Amino acid sequence: MAAGEFELIGRCFTGRGAGRADVRLGVGDDAAIVAPPAGSELVLALDTIVSGTHFPAETAPRFVGHRALAVNLSDLAAMGAEPAWALLGVTLPSGDEAWAAEFARGLDELARRHAVALVGGDTTRGPLAASVMLAGTVPTGGALLRSGARAGEDVWISGTPGDAAAGLAILQGRLAAGGAARDDLLRRFLLPEPRVALGIALRGLATACIDVSDGLAGDLEKLCAASGTGAECDAALLPLSPALLDTAGTELATRLALTGGDDYELLFTAPPAAREAIGALAAGAACRRIGAVTSGGGVRVSGAALPRDAGHGFDHFGK
Amino acid sequence: MAAGEFELIGRCFTGRGAGRADVRLGVGDDAAIVAPPAGSELVLALDTIVSGTHFPAETAPRFVGHRALAVNLSDLAAMGAEPAWALLGVTLPSGDEAWAAEFARGLDELARRHAVALVGGDTTRGPLAASVMLAGTVPTGGALLRSGARAGEDVWISGTPGDAAAGLAILQGRLAAGGAARDDLLRRFLLPEPRVALGIALRGLATACIDVSDGLAGDLEKLCAASGTGAECDAALLPLSPALLDTAGTELATRLALTGGDDYELLFTAPPAAREAIGALAAGAACRRIGAVTSGGGVRVSGAALPRDAGHGFDHFGK
What we know:
Two copies of one chain form a homodimer.
Chain A: H1 5-11, E1 23-25, E2 32-34, E3 40-50, H2 61-78, E4 82-92, H3 97-113, E5 117-125, E6 129-139, E7 154-158, H4 163-171, H5 179-190, H6 196-201, E8 208-212, H7 216-227, E9 230-234, H8 242-259, E10 265-270, H9 275-280, E11 287-294, E12 299-302
Parallel strand pairs in A: 4-5, 9-12
Antiparallel strand pairs in A: 1-2, 3-6, 4-6, 7-10, 7-11, 8-10, 9-11
Helix pairs in contact in A: 2-3, 4-5, 5-8
């Protein structure tokens, strides 16, 4: 049988990602076979990104490939899991091998940095979209859940939220920026760095954790709802990047930090007794305390002139 | 935060599929947590089905939901794996809750019959498509691969290939049929029954196995390529259903059986010494010997007036 474009495209994904001794069978059979370590539980996430919904249609394929894996790495980071094996379903409008090769390169680079093997998947024809399933492991009982927050604990955020939303706004011509700030913010949207090492380091320290994909305020509401708590945050404590402040000013920067999507930072809670240990983590330097868990009353953010809809995250269908 | 349509749709999928004691955390956190049994390897498959490519755009949502899982169950069946946990990424053009509920029902019914829990996933806006990742288990070293066939062994097929391709042709108005034959063939396309029990039963009996999704002849070529063998089959031995023969006649029925897609039957090889054991399987009644593995020379099918392109399977991009 002559190789069709379909098969040529599929070959772009063969052998991608890291090599792993626990992969018994990778791409090329009906399914992949892997061997999870004894004493571990399996953590599974699947996310789909669609052109025009999750990234602008004209986004370079390398960035799309990076994003397709990054969103799942971020989910596993939020569980404190160690990522291991990915499967990719990519849908392309035509058999564009150059596009597929660049997409594969973006995914491959990120996968190798996190020791993730691409063990299988599927290439199909249709409107541009990519689904990645990522499997990883945690020691049995060791995962970070959304539901463990308790009143009196601290609320923490990693990194500098809002940057990615500003980067998207720049891409779409809704926000003007120049020089290094522009580059920084664009990179934060196009090449998000999921906090995998931080998530693993937070096992046993954080009591609840979620990744910020839909906006800090909305994702904090989800964490609190799962924990049966509320939270109070001080907007003045939000770690806003110089690039974001220079570009957007304090009020818009605060709004983007609270409601912008695509940060892929970790939002977590921990008892005050854990402050020193968190500060001492190699990955902990990026973390800032922004508030406290309360016994109820929803999520309240004080300390700044907040826009009316600051409590709302990003909803694909709702906006 | 008010629930958007996105969340309403997502709720259609909560609690779907079978309950399983090994699910530590299902839908609702950043990822799912499951506990694979000791002594097992993990088998992972991901398939995407796209409207207009893998099913007609007007297909009822219940059938789309069934198909989204069935294609993955068939992949795991071909490995001899026991399916366990699924994640779903569904992309919908609008927040059509009724459509999503019917889709979920179709997936749920099939999942329950195979003890598969739906543990997570993602609902996004975009052109209609669904990706399912299915994870299952095999005893360590016990999986059926494509690569184990050896010259002198038998080639077997389960069920009655070609029916699903005839069903699709009827749906698309390319083939006329009436009465019970029409219903049978449509059902074979719309509600394929993956051979999960047969796959498990074939552990230790079959030497190589593949599921027939792209056409028997093309998939046999893939199995032989992976095994470094050839095969000779007799078209007169193909198990053609009465419905297919009545509707299409012998020549077209043979063509559909060899080159039609979407059968989701198992094509496997086994030594002659295994004939009695295979025949004695509860699931083995559906199996028929159609040829023999050869030491080389590609796949040859004799015994009928075969169309020129009978050696070609279905290639999404290639046709």
